[in-house]
Amino acid sequence: MHEHNEHVYKIIEVVGSSREGIEDAVRNAVSRTSESIRELRWFKLEDVRGQLKEGKVEYWQVSLRIGFNVEGG
Amino acid sequence: MHEHNEHVYKIIEVVGSSREGIEDAVRNAVSRTSESIRELRWFKLEDVRGQLKEGKVEYWQVSLRIGFNVEGG
Amino acid sequence: MHEHNEHVYKIIEVVGSSREGIEDAVRNAVSRTSESIRELRWFKLEDVRGQLKEGKVEYWQVSLRIGFNVEGG
Amino acid sequence: MHEHNEHVYKIIEVVGSSREGIEDAVRNAVSRTSESIRELRWFKLEDVRGQLKEGKVEYWQVSLRIGFNVEGG
Amino acid sequence: MHEHNEHVYKIIEVVGSSREGIEDAVRNAVSRTSESIRELRWFKLEDVRGQLKEGKVEYWQVSLRIGFNVEGG
Amino acid sequence: MHEHNEHVYKIIEVVGSSREGIEDAVRNAVSRTSESIRELRWFKLEDVRGQLKEGKVEYWQVSLRIGFNVEGG
Amino acid sequence: MHEHNEHVYKIIEVVGSSREGIEDAVRNAVSRTSESIRELRWFKLEDVRGQLKEGKVEYWQVSLRIGFNVEGG
Amino acid sequence: MHEHNEHVYKIIEVVGSSREGIEDAVRNAVSRTSESIRELRWFKLEDVRGQLKEGKVEYWQVSLRIGFNVEGG
Amino acid sequence: MHEHNEHVYKIIEVVGSSREGIEDAVRNAVSRTSESIRELRWFKLEDVRGQLKEGKVEYWQVSLRIGFNVEGG
Amino acid sequence: MHEHNEHVYKIIEVVGSSREGIEDAVRNAVSRTSESIRELRWFKLEDVRGQLKEGKVEYWQVSLRIGFNVEGG
Amino acid sequence: MHEHNEHVYKIIEVVGSSREGIEDAVRNAVSRTSESIRELRWFKLEDVRGQLKEGKVEYWQVSLRIGFNVEGG
Amino acid sequence: MHEHNEHVYKIIEVVGSSREGIEDAVRNAVSRTSESIRELRWFKLEDVRGQLKEGKVEYWQVSLRIGFNVEGG
């Protein structure tokens, strides 16, 4: 029985942001993505950028690849 | 208020082509993508390829990552 | 006539696995993806990983980028 | 009118450090850079390193690429 | 019958240039390469550089990998 | 005599944009850079991005590394 | 309780080979590594090479990064 | 006297995790590694991943390359 | 005597394909290349792609860099 | 007291050359750069190229990233 | 008149070795390549490896990409 | 008989330095590593850095990946 063979993930890429910092931007991206996709399983942080204003970081911006279970999989 | 935290982009990858050239292939890819996804915001050109025939470029082919606003975001 | 200009691919990324080996994991990923997306055209193998248990490979795991025709394109 | 064509950024690379953590090291690098360059607009985090001493992180060190408006641009 | 197995491409790398622009440099490189190698099939643009003189682009220079059918293949 | 040993280039990174296309964005970036730095010699195109609006490319944006002679070198 | 914090993997890099093929070379590398290190958990295939002789593949050679539990962890 | 020539570092790669965040995962990895290897000197953050559960980050996971003095060196 | 200094390899890049799988595609590419070049010594697998049709892999396609002795070397 | 937080490096990229070899080209690039920037601290060799003439290396050319203390930092 | 457009380089990749060191291995590779190809113009050092025996470097081995004028070009 | 299948290498990463130059730093790293590990077989040069002082290179620093036979293998 190859029932595990049925196990397939899809990966999407999202960009999230936060005034607070890197981890908060990750949590925002994950939280918003979970509203439309169930069964999120892992992420990989692809890059970290930020908007600057008057010598300060105004927004932290992260891009993530997020893996999720294909439903019925 | 962290209303900006709500701001999340998704990124998709598309491949477009043109007989004319690189920029036309980008415009075709963007135009077709915009038929099904609203609120496209930016692209990044990932690679440029082409089909050759009888010593000439028959098609230019570009792959793009395109970022768009998550609706309701 | 620029009818070819209409030709646009989308690319998705999926992860498949198998107890048997690399090619079987690719076939599983493709087969499951084809259940929800028609007109798959090509894949590129992005990486190969595996789960180990008691000094043996328990699962082979591949991640693929898969290109498909945009319907109506 | 191509007035926007006049819009050009320069990018510099800086390394900042902090005893506190990654975000504090970014803020230090941005803050010091803003003393000599006005109109900083964005950064990209290129890598994160650290000095270790007696099994602890003594300093966090980040390298950033920072984009800024060319004055008069 | 594995007649398709016989199908093998070779890839060469060439650098072409043009005073006009990127696409013209690609076409020059392809055209010159086709004088000595028949059956060119595709290219991939590897990088784009240029020579500058008095604040202007004097030459655009592209490097391409070009795939071609092995004759008799 | 090692007079050639005296020959040293510096490299800067700039971002230019244009409503017209990739080559125009390169020319804008080079032209503006040449206002403050003489003796620009070559560029390498690092990436191509763009801003999208209503399914169209609003601006093309290129980042370049530009090499120039160190004066007196 | 941060008991999970105790969970740390080490990663080693090994090269294995086989006359049979890629998966057999992976299995050989894993099997030999497991003789001296217990608790191997996963691998990532880093590259695939081979020795050729008289127009045939004599050996397949894979390099792997293998993660294992730190004992007591 | 080339006494400095004697100075050689080794580099190991480790993966650490934390429920709290990125910096805490780094500190855990460093702390655990320091139990078996003295004279850790620096780290480089190679990647950041995480496990997701019910739309939240359950664990942050970092992989680090850590340099240490070869004893007697 | 620096007779070994005379030892020089050239490297070519080829693409091979197979209906059977990855290793068969490698063997086809090597076999066909050996018809025109003697003294092939090693290969490195650069990437693995495939053509898909009706949810199945129709062809596996590999690109290889192959090193060979320069004759008389 | 976070006086160390004040410690910020800038990084510049330069290209140097030499008829003698790689290390001499590095020393030339560093020496010329030190004429205008004090407090150079480290370099990283980014690439090595060369000009050829009549089957010989006429010039060795290195590109370096060089880090230096920001004055007053 | 686009006579410069005619200017096309080809690039080949070679591996050379030496008992003496890196630069000598480069010179060997260039010298041997020049026996069969005229008009070599530049090289780029792609990687440096070596064979070890009894704790010493037995051979230095470099791989180079070498650009040359296409004859008649 | 698959006796060759038993052949497995491990790879370690080390950093060596020298006041003299790149090759001397490689030799130092290899020599010191050979004091604790027998059967070193090959290295790959991963990067070259250096410490600068008063406009001169004070130390050359190389990082190497070194492959060695697993004993009994």
What is the arithmetic mean of pLDDT of chain A? Answer: 90
CATH-assigned fold name of chain A: Dodecin subunit-like
Radius of gyration of chain A: 15 Å
| Helical content of chain A (DSSP H or I, runs of 4+) | 10-25%
Strand ordering within the main sheet of chain A: 1-3-2
Describe this structure in words.
The structure is a homododecamer of 73-residue chains. Chain A has 73 residues and is of the alpha+beta class. Chain A contains 1 helix and 3 strands. At the A-B interface, strand 1 and helix 1 of A face strand 1 of B.
Strand-helix topology:
The structure is a homododecamer of 73-residue chains.
Chain A: E1 8-18, H1 22-36, E2 40-53, E3 56-69
Antiparallel strand pairs in A: 1-3, 2-3
Briefly say what this structure is.
12 copies of one chain form a homododecamer. Chain A is an alpha+beta fold and about 70 residues long.
